[in-house]
Amino acid sequence: MNIFSKSHKKSGFTLIELLVVISIISILSSVVMASLNTARTKARDVKRRAELKQVQIGLQLYYVTNNGTYPVTGPGVWWGNCTNYGSHETSGANGWVQNLAPTHMPVLPLDPKPNGAGGCYLYRSDTGTDYKLLAHQTMEVCTVPPGIPSTDPMYDIVRAGQCTIGIFTPGGSGY
Fold first, then answer.
1. pLDDT by residue (tens digit) across 125-152?
2. How far apart are CA 136 and CA 13, in angstroms?
């Protein structure tokens, strides 16, 4: 037996095989991340709807205990928790719905996206007889199609070209 004629068989993967596996894994991870982002967007929209309904209940309690009036912002004035609408607080006389929290609900909610990222809750009541609450999401992927008439009770026809949902009294629907 000749020690120099020994064949050395190497085991392992070729470079091509490794590149194919890496590319398949990266494609699958891209698909998973895209699905995850869509799920997060939908979850934020569900949270916005629930929080607006909580504020609506607080407004109904306020209305009952304040002789049939809602907190007044003034004619044409929107109060919100974002920079463009006064950066109002989540409670007290400077809350984005004045004096609603902590008396009629523990605290006013903030949009699930951080301030400055496009999400904002808004409130308006010109005279205290009607109001409108909005979840205004300028940077989100819309789950409510803009510009299309909708049967969604929270669809805001006034802002049909924007990704906005709202709750309002009949007289506040046109705000």
1. 999 999 999 988 654 556 555 556 667 7
2. 53
Q: Is 166 in contact with 156 (CB distance < 8 Å)? A: yes
Contact 78, 166 (CB under 8 A): no
| 37-79 pLDDT, tens digit each | 888 878 888 899 999 999 999 999 999 999 999 999 999 999 9
Query: Which residues, 6+ apart, have CB-to-CB distance to 9 below 8 Å?
Result: none
Q: How far apart are CA 54 and CA 73, in angstroms?
A: 19
Backbone dihedral region for residue 14 (phi beyond 0: left; psi -120 to 50: alpha; all else: beta): beta
- Residues 120, 63, 56, 169: what is their CA dihedral angle, to the nearest 10 degrees? -90
Q: Give residue limits of the domains in the chain.
A: 16-172
> Cβ(95)–Cβ(110) under 8 Å?
no
Statement: the pTM of the whole predicted model exceeds 0.70? yes
